What does this fold into?
Amino acid sequence: MFGLGKKDTTVFVVVIILALCAPFILNPFPGNSSLAQFNAGYPDLMQRFVIFGIFAIGFNLLFGLTGYLSFGHAAFLGAGSYAAVWMFKLLSMNVIPAILLSMIVAGLFAVVIGYVSLRRSGIYFSILTLAFAQMSYNLAYSVLTPITNGETGLQITLDDPRILGASATADGGIPVTNLFGLEMRHFTTVDIAGWSFNFSVGYYLCAVIMILAFYVAVRIFRSPFGMMLRAIKSNQQRLYYTGLNARPYTLAVFVISGMYAGLAGGLLASMDPLAGPERMQWTASGEVVLMTILGGAGTLIGPVLGAGFIKYFENIFSKINDGVLHGWFSFLPDGLENVVITLLHPFVGKGWHLTLGLMFMLVVIFLPGGLVEGGQRIAKALRRGRTEDNGAARKASHEPAE
Amino acid sequence: MSKSTLTRRGVLRTGAVAGAGVALPTIFTSSAASAFTNEPTGGSVTLGFNVPQTGPYADEGADELRAFELAVEHLNGGGDGGMMNTFSSKTLDGTGILGKKVEYVTGDTQTKSDAARASAKSMIEKDGAVMISGGSSSGVAVAVQGLCQEAGVIFMAGLTHSNDTTGKDKKANGFRHFFNAYMSAAALAPVLEKMYGKDRKAYHLTADYTWGWTQQESIQAATEAMGWETVNNVLTPLAQTDFSSYIAPVLNSGADVLVLNHYGGNMVNSLTNAVQFGLRDKQVNGKNFEIVVPLYSRLMARGAGENVKGIFGSTNWHWSLQDEGSKAFVQSFGTKYGFPPSQAAHTCYVQTLLYADAVQRAGSFNPCEVGAALEGFEFDGLGNGPTLYRADDHQCFKDVLVVRGKENPESEFDLLEVVEVTPRAQVEYAPDHPMFSGGNLGSCNPGA
Amino acid sequence: MDAIILQILNGLDKGSAYALIALGLTLIFGTLGVVNFAHGALFMIGAFCAVTLNRILTLSHQVVDESRKDFLGNPLKVDVPYVNDWFGEAAGATIIDWSVPLAILFSIPVMIAIGVIMERGLIKHFYRRPHADQILVTFGLAIVLQEIIKYFYGANPIPTPAPDVFRGSFDFGVLLGFDPNVIIYPYWRLVYFAFAALIVGAVFAFLQFTTFGMVVRAGMADRETVGLLGINIDRRFTIMFGLAAAVAGLAGVMYAPINSPNYHMGMDFLVLSFVVVVVGGMGSLPGAVLAGFVLGVLESFASMNEIKSILPGIDQIIIYLVAIIILLTRPRGLMGRKGVMED
It folds into this structure.
């Protein structure tokens, strides 16, 4: 189906189902239960899941296929965001031109950075991309403020020209981003027996684009072009001796990957018209590396899972404060309740970084192939029964992610 | 943000929506049930406190959170009532807001505008917060203020000092109690003149981003008006940790005052470096060399240790103030947590009370009615003397404190001493002042 | 001229910090082949060794002073450090005053222990894993370490002053025949520079002139052969990791008075020190030290107003710009070897 192999079709269908049913899947707990804290099915977070999924899919095209570890990918996301917001300021609030421009700008940016950085490989390539991204970040924060609005971030205002749209709505507000009149922020809440599910226009636009992006990525993975990229990863020297120049291929995939990042940036700006410089900071670049490796580099679905995992932590764990903890454990006797809360306190709320760091370490130590390998191990264990468990686990270890 | 809540009957239609994907949900636009975003319907109302919990401002964020918790406790009738007893408006009676129990959710801004907006959005979309407060930097405040305007909830800014928050980036749904860079300069200049004379040459080191620029511009204008000369203004990168290469040339420039337009970690490091270089022991142009830090944060100043001694700056509020409001606040905060509150804690506590009071007076949580109740509101008893929430730009006008690093601190909290309380009249400015022009409040947005 | 001398001086002490961190990173990379993203955290822990020792020395009991009041109006409790009780007020004050230099002694065993535990407990299992895994796990460790420090010490910087005798600054200008106050330089930064030079010299001497160092160098060149010769190279590599941790820690201890330590100071240095290592050439110890000083001095020059007025914002990007230029003109950095980290 869709020109994909049987296995890829299965994965693709799973992704489609996950993406379209996310409002149900992410809200498994009734709204008034104490576990509702763990629900992630509100529009903003769902949008972030799929947008960062797109970002990680694009990163994985470069890293998973060629092994080139870019430490500056956030620069393309940032450039895409700025391009999109400028489109909203100058042209109209329709998201289509904004998203297109963000991909073009990020692509051009990637051509320049890629052309220079790809002259080197290994950690030297990583440091070159890091250097470009940090330069972009530092300049966007300070000297380029007329274009980027510096620390505050680029926002749309009432006195933007917007030549194809209105500067302000009839009642004096700032117009909102839309797709031919369909407002991105619009959402509908449906209550079913205590559960409530949010259906957001913006989310479904992102989800459809993510499905398309995923499809394109699968096709690239399975194409002759993809084979060539894998060849570059396994032995660039040999490729060179056969008379092939690897540079055009790596540059092509670098630009494609940069355009994915630009697309993600454009979508971020379309959902929430703001672009700040910290989107380009090295920590943001590091984040997409973590997402990809955590999920499983070189696998199709891994990066999407990794992106969801990290964003979930960032948004859900950071909001658990002591008051919430007291709510959960109020059934325990007073002394015990305080002990439990004291034990948990360092790991939630303001300690969510600590939990995230520990989770990284555990995943990397015990699941070198990322979450995908974890899933495979569970599946194998279920299929073969417990007796062969040990041997299966050992064989399941992935090809190195580099 | 249009949000419509359907009953079980809507399920069939919903199935169709889910199936058809993106196109259909517009049919629900007209079926909005509530008059404004997150109208509280049950017996409680949810406020969102969005503070930095990770990153360099985490300690300030933690102090803000303590103040919020204290304010909620007082609003719900717990504790000793704190400043509710000294507040000139007497509508708050300890029964929550409009009889609804106050609940709150917290989030982490990470001092990044993206993360702050994500966190605020989750409070609005998931937790149903009807007001967002907090923040510890102007970038975050401006970003979240913009979001609240779009979403149709009230934003009560926490610690944000840039002129832009109520200047070119002001919004109808946003309100700021904290003072700003212009006020700092207007309050400091006369004191500096008195202490250091009219004939001084100033050298500015300025953090290279929006807040730093507005701060520098304000101080330069105010000091030049009284006769000082500005020798140089050097921009320093925000990520800089070692300022030695910026400070080393200062002595040789002919300047005899160094103005550090830095905040937070930048301020701690640049001040420490400047003192290390022995600038304060030097004589230039026959005068003692002096250092000025326009915006003091007591929490951060602790990081500079002894280096703050004798250095002038301004602050929004200080716990050693002896008016009834401040005393009541310090008493209840100190009793609960064991140490005095910071200026960040103070402004967050006050903002929460002001919001609750405005709702009470308006008789509604509707952001437009709350906003109208806050606009032009005159009050007293919250620690800063008589204060006005100006309608033109939603900025509070009140006395500003000029402080100096204390020579002989009695405890680890006793770092600053109040030198002068600059009266409100002296720091006021016209709403169309050039440093604040270019913005537009727009119209209030109730969402829905 | 005076401005140039001044900025070279400034660059030297900034460079010392870069060089010390890069030296440790290169030791670990050169011997163990591990990319250690937790190295910045080790630097930070070093600085917190100074803070901790200061806390230990100022451990106090409280004496209620009825004549003074605290902020709530209760009688003030005055802290009296135990060292004052034991050694008398003057000697006690001197000991506390010298807590940073004393912390050097305190930090060496602590840092070696942390290094050895890290290597045996975690890094050992990553020798055969790809560099990406090493980066990820040490990055995770760095986050955990700094969150632990934040949990105990808070997020705000903690003042850790140098001994009183090192306060103030030295007037170089007078020495060189300039007017007074033209070229001044804080004493403590001079101490830092001398200290860094000493450590760098000691590490090189250790590797060059001891049998232990010889074996380690042999192991760096060809681990397998050294193993076949019956030498337990693993144990020596463990010790090298401890040593590298101690170098980072000492750099941190001595840095504490320059900038008050905070929990994220390691991350601030991490990216820069990686740039330094790569510019110097992966795996080259002299390269790391040279690149540290070169970048430190260039960074200082870029902050000069004369240069900034021609190229605004140059001080924001100088390090990265230099890194790009060097990597494009010298593919393996200043002194890198062929084939290291290129696959």
Summary: Residues 1-32 of chain B have pLDDT under 50 and may be disordered. Chain B has three domains: 1-33, 44-179+319-393, 182-315. The two ends of chain B are 6 Å apart (CA to CA). Chain B touches chain A through 67 residues (CB under 8 Å).
